[in-house]
Design brief:
mainly alpha; 0% strand
């Protein structure tokens, strides 16, 4: 579970390099939401405080 979350986080962070707020505001927002969800899920299995903070 943790490894999948970490891979998803990496993919979302990479996507945000292309999906900028200025050029793709809706896609940017959806990607940010998904990134937060991935950090929340990761917090369930490791580094709870740190990953919860990143989710926010």
């Amino acid at each position: 579970k943790a490894e999948n979350c970490k891979r998803a986080i990496g993919a979302y962070e990479e996507a945000l390099r292309v999906r900028t707020y200025e050029d793709f505001p809706m896609d940017y927002g959806m990607t940010q939401n998904n990134l937060g969800n991935a950090y929340r899920t990761l917090a369930e299995v490791e580094e709870k405080a740190e990953n919860c903070s990143k989710a926010i």
